[in-house]
Lysine N-acyltransferase MbtK (Streptomyces lusitanus), 180 residues
Amino acid sequence: MSAIGPFTVRPLDPLQDAELLHRWVTHPKAAFWMMQDATLPDVEREYMRIAAHEHHHAFLGLHDGEPAFLMEKYDPRYVELVGLYEPEPGDVGMHFLVAPTDRPVHGFTRAVITAVMEELFADPATRRVVVEPDVGNKAVHALNEAVGFEPEREIDKPEKRALLSFCTREQFEAARGVSV
């Protein structure tokens, strides 16, 4: 558990959570989420699509019981990275978005990405987490590095130039200072 407090994760409800998500993904701090101009129906449709997808799942992260972040987990063999790298058994793709706030808490975003990684590695089948953030998103590159990600190379996705990065369970534990 983080010093920031307890985090929990629950499946996202695309209709019930749409208004909340709409505020988050259209906020200026969520520019790299690429939904700045999305309408509420656009957000509902996108998360209904994810909910219906066998290999892509969305979760709402809670801090002290209050919505605090969005987490997406996907199988890169079928979603996001098809044909862009050679997936290995146990690879899991991830996206996360911290809710915008008027009262930032020092270390909160790092605590969130740590909680997301703990959630992903709680599944013993997960051997490596894969991310593909925009090459220009320097803040997330630093966060990824802080939890053990190592960049492999830049790749061209239809919507962006991305930095393909990986983090094994061992790299995550080492970054946290936990012996494996």
About this structure: Residues 108-121 form the longest helix (14 residues). The helical segments are 18-25, 40-52, 108-121, 138-146, 169-176. The mean pLDDT is 92.
